[in-house]
Amino acid sequence: MGAPGDGAGPYITDIPPELLARVPVEQRMPGRGRDAVRLLVSRGRAEPSLHAFRELPDLLRAGDVLVVNTSATLAAAVDARLGGEELVVHFSTRGDDGRWAVELRVPTGGGTTGPRPGGPAGAVVELAGGRRLVLEEPLAAGADRLWWGRPSPGPYAVPELLREQGRPIRYAYTERDQPLSAYQTVFAVPAADGAGSAEMPSAGRPFTAELVARLVSRGVQFAPLTLHTGVASQEAHEPPYPERYAVPGATAALVNAARAGGGRVIAVGTTAVRALESAADERGVVRAAGGWTDLVVTPERGVRAVDGLLTGLHEPEASHLLMLEAVAGRAAVRLGYARAVAELCLWHEFGDVHLLLREDSRHASHC
User: Fold this and answer.
1) Which of 90, 106, 130, 149 is deepest in the core (most CB within 10 A)?
2) Are 366 and 61 within 8 A, CB to CB?
3) Is the predicted pLDDT of residue 292 greater than 60, yes or no?
4) What's the rounded Cα separation, in Å, for the pair 69 and 227?
5) Cα-based distances in Å from 203 to 39, 187, 207, 294
């Protein structure tokens, strides 16, 4: 295994089928909670360590800050028709002009879907309850996966549609449909306008109210922000598209104070990294910010405000791997993924989690 872009191939070529988390941990291990997943910890060239996730309070220090995404997960998948063709529409992102970025998928049986090109322009997608979606243009030039669609009777009909007819987006590696509650994190705050994430900000899933209380009692603080994540590319692994985010002033102040006081800023999820880094200047000072971010965090760009990242295990070609390198370096990612395979850690949103820390992180003698 090697690092993306170093000529040595990906960290892992294929994910063995037995390492796919097909159901939530509380279903794999009846009687256990969400925090029963495992936690891999990587820093630099040190040998990664493996823990129970519920040990996280013992691995962090007073003064550390966990930056969490409060975006709620939407029931973003809806059955539809285009002419005589049966489709599933994944509602990804609502634009400022009332349109929605959507992905059209083909049902493949058993509740899963396969890829389908978007469009054509002018096509009318029929939705439940007499609603319609008129496809207008690709979200990005030269790409045909996500298209802008204008809903009828209006943009606010979509949140109602998702509440009435929607279900969580499900991918082929999962075993069965799950209720929307299985995709909500303890940090989720429903938005008044119906906005949310098409896919769960899954790094926050293992947290429970009890674990949050234990972390707070140890002096670890939580800093909330919001980034509404769109539909990921499961087949092509495209870079992320622009997404809507908001970093409150209180969060900016808390992050800046922690860094000034020697605490570490640890993002819970790649979404939290993208939002926080979008609000940071070249010196790493964070200010209240919001709107749309098209930031793609790479090793060349680096990170300015983040000292660590808590995330899931990503697929071989996922663009998020470059963000992991930016936070912790290639060696940490390479060693971490080798250990994950050796220890039979589980992949995807219901799987185990990975804490990556900067090699020069403060309190380097501790986790």
Assistant:
1) 149
2) yes
3) yes
4) 6
5) 11, 11, 9, 21
Which one, of 238, 358, 247, 361, lies nearest residue 296 by Cα? 238
pLDDT, position 109: 82
Q: 314-328: string of b/e by CB count within 10 Å (b at 16+)?
A: bbbebbbbbbbbbbb
d(CA 318, CA 91): 21
* Of residues 299, 238, 217, 248, the one with CA closest to residue 70: 248
| Cα 48 from Cα 333, distance rounded (Å) | 10
Non-local (6+) Cβ contacts of 186 within 8 A are 204, 207, 208, 209, 212
Q: 203-239: per-residue pLDDT in tens?
A: 999 999 999 999 999 999 999 999 999 998 766 667 7
Q: Which run of H or E residues covers position 107?
A: strand 100-109
Quick one: pLDDT at residue 1? 37
Average pLDDT in the chain: 91
pLDDT tens for residues 25-79?
999 999 999 999 999 999 999 999 999 999 999 999 999 999 999 999 999 999 9
Confidence at residue 156, expressed as pLDDT on a 0 to 100 scale? 67
Mean pLDDT calculated for residue range 83-93 = 94
Question: Distance (Å, rounded) from C-alpha 339 to C-alpha 131?
Answer: 49
Residues 37 and 50 sit within 8 Å (Cβ to Cβ): no
Question: Cα–Cα distances in Å, from 359 out to 213, 224, 263?
Answer: 28, 25, 15
Please report where in the chains the tokens 């400022």 appear, as a residue: 96
**Beta bridge pairs of residue 39:** 51, 353
Helix axis angle, 330-342 to 320-328, nearest 10°: 110
| CA count, 13 A, side-chain hemisphere, 269 | 28
Measured between alpha carbons, how far is 262 from 264 in angstroms, rounded to an integer?
A: 7
* Residues 6+ positions from 97 with CB-CB distance below 8 Å: none
Q: Over the range 75-111, which residues count as b (16 or more CB within 10 Å of their CB) and which as e? A: bbbbebebeeeebbbbbbbbbeeebbbbbbbeeeeee
- What does the alpha-carbon distance between residue 129 and residue 123 come to, in Å, rounded to a whole number? 18
